[in-house]
Amino acid sequence: MVSASGDAGSDASALERAGGVQVECREPVGEAHVTVWIIATDRAEAFDLVIPPLQRILGLDTDELADLADRAADSDEGTLLDLGDDARAAVARIDIRGAASGVLYVPYVPPIGPRPSIW
Description:
Number of strands: 5
Oligomer: single chain
Structural class: alpha+beta
Low-confidence stretches: none
Mean pLDDT: 84
Number of helices: 3
Shape: globular
């Protein structure tokens, strides 16, 4: 688990600046594994923290990222966002008691290779 106060300086991570906490769970599934990140923040920007890895995984351009952010803002909490048929990730805004915003993020992780990081 990674947590932050929200009072971080200019060299702080995005998670620290958002006053966030991240919990990561990783479970082996056959030859691969599933990783789930749950992120809660003191500000309404938890979803923004998964935009960079979504851009890398999905290969989105700036307009597509803006559309994704708009759809996320309009989505109901607990509803997976449609990332396309070939998406290698899943993401949903979630309600986390005591947090201003929350997000559940499941990236695709190949069977062989280093562990991904969004920080």
